[in-house]
Amino acid sequence: MKRPTILTILLSVVFATKLFAQTAKDPVDYINPYIGNISHLLVPTYPTVHLPNSLLRIYPERENFTGNVLRGLPLIVTSHRGSSAFNLSPFQGVVKDIKHVLPLSYDNEVIKPYFYSVDLDEQNVAVQYAPSHQSGIYELHFNHPEKDTYLIFNTRNGELSHDNRHISGYQNLDKQTKVYIYLETDVQPIVIGTNQGDKVGTNDKSTKGEDAYFIVQYPKGTTKIKLRYGVSFISTEQAKRNLRREIRDFDLATISKRGRDIWNQTLNKIKVTGTDEDAKTVFYTSLYRTYERMICLSEDGKYFSAYDGKVHDDKGRPFYTDDWIWDTYRATHPLRILIEPEMEANMINSYIVMTQQMPRAWMPNFPEVTGDSRRMNSNHAVAMVADAYNKGLRNFNLEEAYRVAKAAITEKTLAPWSAKPAGVLDQFYKDHGYFPSLAPGEKETVPEVHSWERRQPIAVTLGTVYDEWCLSQIASKLGKTDEAKYFSERSLNYRKVFNPETKFFHPKDTFGVFIPHMDYRFPPGIGGRDAYDENTGYVYRFDVPHNIGDLVQLIGGKQAFIDALEDMFSTPLGKGRPDFYHIYADHSGNVGQFSMGNEPAMHIPYLYNYAGQPWRSQKRVRTLLQQWFRNDLMGIPGDEDGGGLTSFVVFSQLGFYPITAGLPMYVIGSPTFESATLDIGDGKIFSVVCENYSPDNKYIQSAKLNGVSWNKSWFSHEDLMKGGKLELVMGKHPNKTWATGDDAIPPSFKMNDKLKIKK
Fold it and tell me: Where's the Glycosyl hydrolase family 92 N-terminal domain (predicted)?
């Protein structure tokens, strides 16, 4: 056999190095914004183009991925489920065919977080786009030089003005909130005006009202137009300043590269390795989704607040809003505590500040650009505060956060989707410890109750006792011993709606009588809202995140708890899918009665750890990731809610999960990657490393934490923040003896007070 020469070996190494360099991917290259663009039931996950947590976001104007036409080109999204404000439509032809928004047939679309391109069929226009934080740039290539070239700028409800070159204006979002725009092109228009049928009217320098729009005509033969614009919630002048600060010329490639670099810098806070490329795509796409909201509204040190309708000085701290906290307190905010602690502290500070600007100082629970919409039930911003403080964040006013969070829970009504003061039902809750349901045949007469959202008595009770536990945590830190004791005791009131016969949480009327003939698969009301909310009784059976150890005892001990979990995953829907989803549309991503598509179920796969069988959690988490979170158009099983669902994916693929926001510890699951490294700041990293790695090896055989043998199915936040390494030896078959003892079970209620669990 001929031996290779040294030169041959060196050439092989050089070739391999070049090949690797050509194929190696940056984290941003793994992002697939199309994941989830076709919804299972409700709204799709939109392919959003934006920089992390930035004011400016866009996505194509269509119903979902299957939309046949674009409704113009977008300029800014003001709500992650709403349509764009303003609109841009390129056009070549005659004026009489122009409308305020043109339906655009399209092809060859490319979407990345920092770049968008598309070909418009009938118009024969090639489009490119890149975002900055508060400004964006389009480049349009027209392929019919013999035709007249136009751009149509639309405001759905507002006013536009021009000075023969620049266009500025606003769109009303509600009675007090406006979004402003300032835009210009590199080509001098020959006409800017309004539609006068078969010609462009040039007499008016402004246009106002519903679907008010300008037609901008360019010289015949124009084949390329570059357009840059700034947006603002303060004024058109500020929109102009934002543009001038961020995009100094018409170089789209530079803006796109800068956006790519920003995304890579952000995503590199977590680095993963392994052979499963689809898993990396799902991971980094999920991580990108958690940076869509909250958004930073600070513009040159000032911001508009819809909470009092005024422009404020941000006093050197970025102001954030747009957060659906009912979804995001569970894992999105806890993720930021680890990799974006300064941003998370600023977001908590923003909650406090916006509360101080409101007529009633009640902590928001759905803060949006247009104000607090008071959606869903409970007031879980208190969990965000308790979790951050208990995990070491200090750069916010805890005393003030406690005051406004307490007011939101004790002074505002607990009735869902209501901003009214506390009423008779709230007094009943205070006196009796549970939110009452209507009795059979009883008509609703309480004015705080939303006619469609109903009372949601179990959802409200379980959500509020958890919030009260969070209040007790904060009160204790503040030295308010009596209040800490009061709220801690109240947080056990979930026991009052636990039915000892059925072992489910069961609605009770004001007489203390459980509602008769309850089928937990089919609770009454649309979405089960006469008993629960968006989920059935099976999901709410396990919704006591602050005291899971006690829940294990209530259900009957370890084995009974395991049996209850298995029964949930094994019990079929019980109805045909059209009939079931007609009533329970949010209860998607089903495995039996479990709903992977709705946030209240996200912690459930990890609950086996509390009954001494962590191998079942390892199996369940991996199976759910494979079933419901995939690299395809339907790869998200429910409403994503700005990181609400995808934060579950990020944590679960890393191999641990913050099961109780407010308790500084993490429950171990089953890591997806050979290694994952988190940059936790101050030069420290925390790594999860899998020995005997294979995408199929989902079971933990043994573990070490910082070199020491680890036989617990959890670890503390303190352990993580020290930096170091969690080493897991993996296998294809379960080790049913690892982390099974009582001393291995995660803490409940308090870090130093694990309940003794029945055999």
Answer: 30-232
